[in-house]
Design brief:
Blueprint: H1 20-31, H2 38-57, H3 62-87
Length: about 100
Amino acid sequence: MPPSGYQPGYGYPRPGNTSGFAIASLVCSLLGLLVAFLGPLLGVVFGAVALRHTRERGEGGRGLAIAGIVVGGVLLLLDVAAVIAIATGHTTSGGGGGSGISV
């Protein structure tokens, strides 16, 4: 029997659950290195949902959600820059210049 004044069964508080959306946000953003546009876009969306869940439901994973949004946003910007570079003709292929018309 414990000494008087002590309550048995108390200990460290149970850690809160980590938001699944926060984990999905970071994973999808990192997959954006392999799948352009889709991975980072999902990462940003899941990160926004995860931030709302962490605030409203008291779930953990706020840092994961922020990291997913940042990584996803940076990769989206790089994807857009690559598309613009390709569309404007900024390629590294060598060429003799000119119009390509032989006379």
